[in-house]
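Not sure how to ask, but would you mind making up any protein sequence you like and the C-alpha cells describing how it folds?
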Amino acid sequence: MLKCRKISQFILLIAGVSMMSYGAVRGEAAVVLGKAIKLCLECVGIG
C-alpha cells in the first residue's frame, strides 16, 4: 500500500512539473501575470 502511494505521488509530481514547464514554454506565465496585475488594479480601484 505504501509503495503504491509513493509511486502515484511520483507520477503526479512528474505530471505537474511537465505541465508547468509546457505552460512556461508557451509563454503562459506572462499572460497569468498580466491578468493578476489587472485584477489587483481593479480591486484597488485604479484600473
About this structure: The longest helix spans residues 2-26. DSSP finds two helices and no strands in the chain.
